[in-house]
Amino acid sequence: MQQLTNNITFISKLEACWQRDNFVCVGLDSDYEQLPDIIKGGRPVEDGLFHFNREIIDATHDLVCAYKPNAAFYEALGEAGWRALAGTVRYMREMYPQIPVILDAKRADIGSTNLGYAQSAFDYLGVDAITVHPYLGREALAPFLARKEKGIIVLVKTSNPGAGEFQDLPVGPQQEPLYMVVARHVAHDWNGNGNCAIVVGATYPDELRRVRALAGDMPILIPGIGAQGGEVASTVKAGQDSRGWGMIINASRSIIFASRGSDFAVSARAATGQLRAEINQYR
Amino acid sequence: MQQLTNNITFISKLEACWQRDNFVCVGLDSDYEQLPDIIKGGRPVEDGLFHFNREIIDATHDLVCAYKPNAAFYEALGEAGWRALAGTVRYMREMYPQIPVILDAKRADIGSTNLGYAQSAFDYLGVDAITVHPYLGREALAPFLARKEKGIIVLVKTSNPGAGEFQDLPVGPQQEPLYMVVARHVAHDWNGNGNCAIVVGATYPDELRRVRALAGDMPILIPGIGAQGGEVASTVKAGQDSRGWGMIINASRSIIFASRGSDFAVSARAATGQLRAEINQYR
């Protein structure tokens, strides 16, 4: 019973995946325009999206620690995209309930409004975790942080080239970069329910090392491997925690679009396996 | 022809509304649970939401400078909520094309992903403006900023009590608060297309005055009047620009839920008219 209860939280699902040496998160950034022709032909948009995701998931589920659909690629298609996203999450929960699903939605509003976003992600879709912006502070994020069984993954140092415009600004008498201040607040003040995690891009390994030193064994979601240019060796060295765990290393396009032919799912599995092996080589 | 072309941009629609002394923005935070019984009875959820919004809009359209549906209240209902939101925006565009519609979605991801959010808001839904988080910087927001005819409304100082946790942090050798640094970047660096605006909460009139002094005649979306406790007199004194314009003063609950009886639309009109008069009294 204890085991069962533990395994329904985001963090316990993650840890069970890490125990099997799985640190790859597959980003389901399923841009409809980019899908293989074999998927798009003769199907309504939402069926094509769902079918593509299902094939990717079925081909990779034993190699990953999480799936991460990015809401933007579904919202771009309006109602049909929303249905495809809901169907994909439902499929993952039914077939692979042991694998956590992260909704990469980068939400954050004032407190009363975040209730709506928390309901949408956790109750309507039923995902295990969500990414959020820190800018409005802990008080605004309370409706997310109150969900003990879920993962609240806060943007700290993002993977994009222009991330430093605000995130590197020197703050306070110590002139410490803003992203470190945010990381400290999350790790030392927001995590009363043990459900917080942090985003640091693989494109910034030095910053990743600093955040890891501050955050203890808190999970870090690390996007930016593959198409964005982040390197595996430096990412693992900087990102692993005291147990050699702690990393949710996301790759999206380099896995789901490894091939645009009829072998797209087999190719996605090969790309996932290769990244998995590379990560474990440097741990 | 020039007039017609001008009037299709967010800023020109706004200015035309301001010319008629309209500065109230009605926040369509249409939380389904809170809707009047007369609306909810015997209707599917999405029909109820749409019907409620339509009644509010029909009753207030000649008194406002914008409508602002907050995405969270629609996403909380999943697919049905999404359809109600799309239907509401379609109705506003058809019936009242002169009034700008702001999607309060507080989005922001890395650049390639923001394309999806921009498509969702501007092309699929067809709104005139969107609210965005600044944390990822200008480079990431490029797909929004490139849409010259739209409004890109950046969170600077939000209305919530805990806004200061990061937004007031002292930055750089001048120890200037972060929200002022963000405001300066938006006003002086991001606004090449003249399509930027700024969010400052009515709950922080001193901060509003400082941002106005820095931002020239840039539009400022000012939430926090009414239920959140912001005062009209101090808001108008601090928020108006050199023309006595520049303000998008949002009220949500105090207007749309002014009555929960069958007179909800008439009451919403009365509350809008009262706020409109109060604003103009202090300009």
Write a short abstract of this structure:
Two copies of one chain form a homodimer. With about 280 residues, chain A is an alpha/beta fold.
Structural summary, described in words:
2 copies of one chain form a homodimer. Chain A has 283 residues and is of the alpha/beta class. Chain A has a single domain, classed as TIM Barrel (Alpha-Beta Barrel), CATH 3.20.20. In chain A, 48% of the residues lie in helices and 16% in strands. In chain A, the strands form 2 sheets. The first copy, chain A, has an 8-stranded parallel β-sheet with strand order 2-1-10-9-8-5-4-3. In chain A, helix 4 (45-60) packs across helix 14 and helix 7 packs parallel to helix 8 (138-145). The longest helix of chain A is centred in the C-terminal third of the chain and has 19 residues, at 264-282. Chain A is globular and about 60 Å long. Chain A starts with a helix and ends with a helix. The relative contact order of chain A is 0.14. The model of chain A is unreliable at 1-6 (pLDDT under 50). Chains A and B meet through helix 5, helix 6, strand 3, helix 7 and helix 8 of A and helix 5, helix 6, strand 3, helix 7 and helix 8 of B.
